[in-house]
Fold these 2 entries.
Entry 1:
Amino acid sequence: MKRFAFDFENELINLESEIDRLKSIKQLSKEDSRKLEELEKIYSEVYRKTYSNLTPWNRVQLARHPYRPTSLFYINRLFKGLQEIKADRRYPDDLSLVCFIGEYKGKKTAIAGIEKGADSRERQKRRFGMPLPEGYYKFIRLLEIAEQLKIPVITFVDTPGAYPGIEAEEKGQALAIARSIQKMLFVKVPTVSFVIGEGGSGGAIALACADRIYVLENAYYSVISPEGCASILFHDEKRAPEAAELLKLTADDLFKLKLIHGIVKEPLGSAYRHPEETLRNIDKTLENALQEISSKDVEQLLKERHQFFINIDRNINNLVK
Amino acid sequence: MKRFAFDFENELINLESEIDRLKSIKQLSKEDSRKLEELEKIYSEVYRKTYSNLTPWNRVQLARHPYRPTSLFYINRLFKGLQEIKADRRYPDDLSLVCFIGEYKGKKTAIAGIEKGADSRERQKRRFGMPLPEGYYKFIRLLEIAEQLKIPVITFVDTPGAYPGIEAEEKGQALAIARSIQKMLFVKVPTVSFVIGEGGSGGAIALACADRIYVLENAYYSVISPEGCASILFHDEKRAPEAAELLKLTADDLFKLKLIHGIVKEPLGSAYRHPEETLRNIDKTLENALQEISSKDVEQLLKERHQFFINIDRNINNLVK
Amino acid sequence: MNDRIKTNLKEDILWLKCSNCKEFIFKRIFEENLKVCPICGFHYRIGAYERIEMTFDDGIRGFKSLFEDIVSKDILGFTTSEPYSLTLEKNREKSGVKEAVIVGTGKVKGYEIAAIIFDFNFMGGSMGFGVGERIIRIFNYASQKKLPVFAFIASGGARMQEGMVSLYQMPRTIIAVEKFKEETRLPYVSIFLNPTTGGVLASFAYLADYIAAEPNALIGFAGPRVIEKTIGRKLPERFQRSEFLLEKGLIDKIVRRNEIRDFVSWWCRS
Amino acid sequence: MNDRIKTNLKEDILWLKCSNCKEFIFKRIFEENLKVCPICGFHYRIGAYERIEMTFDDGIRGFKSLFEDIVSKDILGFTTSEPYSLTLEKNREKSGVKEAVIVGTGKVKGYEIAAIIFDFNFMGGSMGFGVGERIIRIFNYASQKKLPVFAFIASGGARMQEGMVSLYQMPRTIIAVEKFKEETRLPYVSIFLNPTTGGVLASFAYLADYIAAEPNALIGFAGPRVIEKTIGRKLPERFQRSEFLLEKGLIDKIVRRNEIRDFVSWWCRS
Ligand SMILES: [Zn+2]
Ligand SMILES: [Zn+2]
């Protein structure tokens, strides 16, 4: 079976396959043995080449990589004793957005994640991480519980966007997102958001208006998908790589624009090759973030949260000549 | 066409029919003329007899009388420039519970009413005044608007109860009622409730937890319908009149138990024969009530609202020997 | 599914027949299994003190029942074949509790909690003044003592023998819940048991932060018979059962009886 | 239904053909009728200043445009066939407005109001920094001057040329709305025009106390083409139109253009 590979990874994946093939042979010929040695020598060089100097489009591709860890991967490992909050009590549960109360370093924490699903059956069930209005209303309920229990809220964002469907529109997708943003902006407890894969416009920002917003090195966070942008600008979705460049959607660009609080590093080769190390980086970032904001009193916290968004004009005026 | 009549009104209605018949004859015979004169003499006596000394069951019957004015009758006449609040923005509008912003004596007011409908087509459409969860959630939205605009809330209650159906249960009827009561108890503006016809248990109290609660003289407000009570107690719905007696569900009884703030008088013959006069009585009561409570500051208002409910034990201990 | 099953089984028999799966089960095993059928998992209805015995660290001895003197009285002079006061007496004898709810405190896995435990054997767990008042008191008490509140609900709704005084327990208990939430940052968790309907469900019970239910419990605002009468047809089998509510997004979780101590103590942790 | 209809009609013609009902209508009547077809009632799209002219007591003269100097800039260096700064210039010329939204104050039937009026002719009424900032400023201004706020929305959503800065106008404007609501007891009312979609709808626009829409306006989070692509089939004719939204419980009212002055002034009364 051919492994999944994006264009820019092709050379590397082919090398890997060839190395694996040779390794699987029980009695290697002299020639093959030499070849394997040679291949292994160049492998590390190609690996480095492939994952250094990634373009914004490459990062979008990595953000969407089918093997990339999804929200539940991190949630299940970072938090103990997860108790799930199911549904908004007006509609059946939306599995594309999961909510829990759990324990982080021995302390109760509210957790939400937009979950794409780990395999194709799961993905179907979870609508490929595209929430319905009831998903956002469930998240609002989680925020209300967090407020009542006075516990911090951690969110994991990984969505191509809110679900664009008939049912979603009929149930008021726009209002659900507006209310989700509103509640997140005014919730009286510390909040931390991680964009771990796709940060697709309105559907993503609904869970990302936190006291601390982090984007993973190979995640993206964008006002529109590169394809959507290319289709409007160039009438050609295939020019998405150019659009990805224009949109300044990488963690690096967003941090330079001061639109996020930090970048979570991924090891060379990205999260899908190094999930545990990426997890550790998130863990470290989260611990530090909570330490920074947990001691603040609510009034100060909200004031700073609002100023972060309101004051983007200062930064912008500095950036535009 | 025979007019609608409850058993206890039969004699009166028959008299009316006979009088009307005689009056419609162009050239009355001497005998008929004498008969009409006689009938008119006894009519007023029968009228008085019929409507004095009404039993609790008679009042339940009058509360359900098909010609009795419904919420919209009062709302349309008491308030000017009605702007309707439609739906809770998550489900299609529930027509059994209507919400408005209107003007009362020149001042903006929030108004809600459970509406049975005036004719049979309307009644079908309005589910005979039995709200669905979305009706109560719409009412909660009205309360939020009233809070934002700092305007008083007036409610009109006329319901056999919240709708008992599959759809209603699936959408969380119980939680909708709990939240409606909760919001009404804590809304930061003055509130006045009128039980104008049927005050059917949970579905009614969801709109009747106000600073001032009034019940019309021939309305009823009960924990269970007399039929339901009779069916449990006696295994016989037909013994509802006895149950009505036991339940202490009339305005008079409730006022004696100090469970309501006052009774709105109806002219002899009840609201269905004298809608305009009943309207005037409601108007007067409402004006006085608003005068009493509008000047209080919010904290005092809520404190008193809560104490009214919490302190019913004092009254009860006085009542029970 | 049969809701009314014989639980007060005669002492002299060793085997019971499960009314759900019709299998014969050893009585001792049934008792050890917290009155859950070991074969089909059917959760049999239990009284408040049975619940206390199996939930608290030292069972009934580890539980402090509070506000025992608060009970309902015959406010309205409600007399049918017997006066309501006699009905109350009879129910006290039958159920072994003085009111349809027991409130108090005790430890679960070492954590002190305040608890509300309904007894369906007492007038169908119906809420009149006594029940409402006890609930108000325990919320106030929990607020003072900084204890989380756990409500084990089993109730047919408001108690009609006290008329509108019963219905008024809905706003009264809701005020108590809200004051508790205002004054503490502690969890209030409801566990719906079989059955939970009417005015209890539609007031304080549903306003918990988190809601769990035992398997197959009947939970709804209107009783199934009322609904069938209104809509003029039979209801589907699973309608208004815990699993149905979970599917419809109306509760958060189903907890089996043997998981309840873990569940409760989870909410008590930091 | 045709959304994109020619409204910039040549001066020299007296008759127009309604693109909706295909009837010929007298141009002067059409103008007097606030650019609503007198035969079929179709509401044609109008610019911000046309809206101002027909809404305020003394038309444009009665309106004070505020924060005119706040406009979007090319933050990201967004250059395709032309730089974004040139796109902005071109749109200014084309539409006659400097940004996709006009904010200011004026009187309607004697009542002073603060207004937010989108111009769809300027880059599809898209919200970038300039639009968001103007909205924030007018909410703050209205709060200081104690004026009710009326928002006339017509927007395709966030403006992609400013990247995430545009998306951040969603939380920014929401903060402004909430501050206004915290500081005043005055109404904030939205009127959705054709079309209203995306990030504008999903932020400050939908958080109004009351929401009306002009007839037949396209209103939705996702655009119809995106939805059709996702679900793989054609959408029903009336889907996402004002009347559909009213039916689904998503808006409160439909107001015809000639009712808007009455509607606005109603909210201003005591
Ligand atoms: Zn069994
Ligand atoms: Zn036309």
Entry 2:
Amino acid sequence: MIDKFAAWLRDSAQVLHDNAAYLTELDSAIGDADHGANLDRGFGAVVAVLDETSFGSVDELLKKAGMTLVSKVGGASGPLYGTFFLRFGTALAGAELTPVSIGEGLRAGVGGILARGKAELGDKTMYDAWAPALDAYDAVVASGGDLEAALTAAAEAAAKGRDATVPLEARKGRASYLGERSVGHQDPGATSTTLLLESAARTLA
Amino acid sequence: MIDKFAAWLRDSAQVLHDNAAYLTELDSAIGDADHGANLDRGFGAVVAVLDETSFGSVDELLKKAGMTLVSKVGGASGPLYGTFFLRFGTALAGAELTPVSIGEGLRAGVGGILARGKAELGDKTMYDAWAPALDAYDAVVASGGDLEAALTAAAEAAAKGRDATVPLEARKGRASYLGERSVGHQDPGATSTTLLLESAARTLA
Amino acid sequence: MKKLINDPADVVSEALLGMAAAHPDRLRVDHENRIVYRKQEPRPGKVGLISGGGSGHEPLHGGFVGLGMLDAACAGEVFTSPVPDQMMAATKAVDAGAGVLHIVKNYTGDVMNFEMAAELAAADAGTEVRSVVTNDDVAVQDSLYTAGRRGVGVTVLLEKIVGAAAEEGRSLAEVAELAQRVNDQGRSMGMALTSCTVPAAGKPTFELAENEMEVGIGIHGEPGRQRLPLAPAREVAALLVDPVLSDLPYGQGDSVIAFVNGMGGTPLLELYLMYNEVAQLLDRAGITVARSLVGNYITSLEMAGCSVTLLKVDDELVRLWDAPVNTPGLRWGA
Amino acid sequence: MKKLINDPADVVSEALLGMAAAHPDRLRVDHENRIVYRKQEPRPGKVGLISGGGSGHEPLHGGFVGLGMLDAACAGEVFTSPVPDQMMAATKAVDAGAGVLHIVKNYTGDVMNFEMAAELAAADAGTEVRSVVTNDDVAVQDSLYTAGRRGVGVTVLLEKIVGAAAEEGRSLAEVAELAQRVNDQGRSMGMALTSCTVPAAGKPTFELAENEMEVGIGIHGEPGRQRLPLAPAREVAALLVDPVLSDLPYGQGDSVIAFVNGMGGTPLLELYLMYNEVAQLLDRAGITVARSLVGNYITSLEMAGCSVTLLKVDDELVRLWDAPVNTPGLRWGA
Ligand SMILES: Nc1ncnc2c1ncn2[C@@H]1O[C@H](COP(=O)(O)OP(=O)(O)O)[C@@H](O)[C@H]1O
Ligand SMILES: Nc1ncnc2c1ncn2[C@@H]1O[C@H](COP(=O)(O)OP(=O)(O)O)[C@@H](O)[C@H]1O
Ligand SMILES: [Mg+2]
Ligand SMILES: [Mg+2]
Ligand SMILES: [Mg+2]
Ligand SMILES: [Mg+2]
């Protein structure tokens, strides 16, 4: 399973690299034009760590990824994604890796995003992608679906949540400074969250 | 005759005002984009003086115009045109106003430009318009022509001198800093000199 | 993109090399952690002052390190807040036994990264850390449900005034209380004539037509609250001063420090011209200018535009403002 | 044209109003004659130092009026030298019995207007006037038959160093001799990424494509000697430093003041990055940097770009450089 998690992080790094200009473009409209560069730098550093270190457990791997993001990204997305992976890893420590435990881990990670960012649903942040994704994931698992099905459902729900950020007026993050002018633009963080979950659906199951 | 000289200065002011953007455009290419604004400001001030003061003699009028230009224009063209009118006026003091004395006055004025600016023929300055203009003027007067004919010939010669500045490499003034890149551009000062002489041909005779 | 840079990825680290080379007598730079320190070790018993934020706002913050101002500044990537490791390292290094104040501009990223650093520093070294979060930008509506107002121009004035208080040997509690008071008494508003270009992005963050301006901008190239037709300086000054004055806490008879700040691409000639307009508006409002500051102090790369900051002051704040300061960006009396 | 101005015709006078309002403790402005004076009357027996030139180069010259630098500065229209009346009035006002030095940048207009003023002042009030004409720009070929080299960055360093010497009470002959020596030992070279826009002209003086730069520019938006493809900072630094070093009078083992100047629209971040490149080139050439200066000191409105000035110094020049100075644009030790 470690290999799959490592593959997820590597695939995410590639996808974020390929989409860096797009994410920065989205961040130009309602932010400060760095979201793509931030994540590219951070996940690039995660890949470098993966190249150098071998990990004994998934939780170690995720915690290290989280610490690396905290140390390398900065901005809003650094502490948010960093905390996500730290708490995701912490929640998995000692646990058997099942669709349920992974779901609990994801929820713990998103709990970290909430604790740090204090966003609510509809604030036009990455949480607007995470929240429906978690619910969709849990629903699939509850009805007996496997990890791949759960992650696929999560990614699809995230994409819907991402699209739903477009008409919102931002209340958190840098886009909130724009007030009404933030309406009509897609949130960069919700977009990168969707990319991460799409990558998970491809690589983790 | 005072009225004619005043009319010349007023007409020049109008012509320079109308051509200010053009002169500045020429000065943009090989200078600092202010020749039109400089002369417009200076001759505008001369007109204001004419409106306020009545003069007892042409030499007083010209000296006052020169002093006004010196005080209001700045840059290279301020001292040059200012000195021109100062010396032109000084040369006419006490003299009867004839085509010959006016020619001597013009030459004295241009002597002032040379004394201040130390330009030589072909340096790509206003002197390249003045020098042929003086010669053409004198030639017409020597062959018995009247003031109007002399000034018309002077203006035509100035225009030729102005056009001849285009292929020159500047050696004086701001254009000289460009070296070879000054080639192919018409000198702004030679252009304004031509405008002044064309105005004289229209108003002074 | 037209910039005097090599690789966009190296802009911040190479600029820090330049700062270190240009100020060897006064500054020491930890290039690995991207921290600008005073050359001299912290004086025992002095409260340490650190700040930091994204790069691209120079001289803020690194240019305000030195006697009478900051002890250290952490430089993030362009417009990206620094990471907790940097603030932690700086906090430990400048702790001279009296604790450390973090001066944080109110942006989600800055606040979160500084918060993590403070938690870690407290746990790790037992350093007492207090924070002040500046939020003086009246362009942003304040509300419990939003990220609140941005920290902008007041940050500069606060670093100076609080720096002087720390130099006097005041306690962390006193310094933090003063910092909060300065923040609460200051308000700012900014505008842009042009966008800036983040080096890694390679193109302008927003596009503005020849006859447009953005009013209510931040310092990260965020678009403003409003796009308006270009207006004369006189009207621009009113657009900036009026919302500042109508917000708390200025009134007839008050004294202020009046600060006209350039966003980086506006020449000093225009900033002085703007200061003339601002001074006239203040005069008409019955407000006394105790001190003024005109220039490029908290910038947005090459953005053209300006901001106006007013800080209500009493004799004590003026005295602290006047105290000696010796930094690359602000210097007097030393 | 995007500028923080009202009527283009009023830019200079309104900016002077702003300067006067912003620095009431230190400066006095004669608005009619457009002269910036020190607040205090000249000290009897001190040589008076005046300079001036077109506006648009701020803080040069008005921002360099004050203790340890100029006694007065005459402001012309944007990029247009002031007129003799201004220099005459300033000369008379700052003559404290020891004579007056005119610091003139070598441009035909500046030289002629200052010359006329010196002639008039000498005739009129009997004031002894000496002049130094700065001509440090190596972009321009020097020759007996041309207008010669332009005065650029050295002017700033000269005003500081000679200002300190005048403050020490040296005679006019000594001060003039020192000024000449400083000029002779300094060289500069500049480049632009963008043009500037003269307010009265309303559009950029020259057009540059996204991938072009001008090398060997002056400070009045004059186009440069060469248009080259945009290059990384490292190559730009070499394009500026090499011609300076290959000109007289620098050599291995020499000490210099290294001055990286912004043209007005280039952020400090980039100027520090450029300084890093310049410092490395000097290091490789075996030249010691005794002092450095990085920032916007002699500008061309909002032009993006920079210039490099090197001034060869000995212990005396360094001591005069370090002496206290208190002006809006340059301040230390006071
Ligand atoms: N308080 C918050 N809670 C959750 N997500 C947030 C919050 N603030 C910002 N974000 C997310 O962070 C994204 C911006 O990240 P990034 O551009 O890297 O940081 P910064 O805004 O500091 O430049 C936003 O698009 C949004 O999704
Ligand atoms: N030494 C000189 N002798 C004669 N004319 C000169 C000299 N230097 C400059 N000029 C003239 O002055 C004109 C420029 O005037 P202007 O633009 O008003 O002044 P500046 O060059 O100071 O901006 C040039 O086009 C040239 O004709
Ligand atoms: Mg961002
Ligand atoms: Mg000109
Ligand atoms: Mg950011
Ligand atoms: Mg000029």
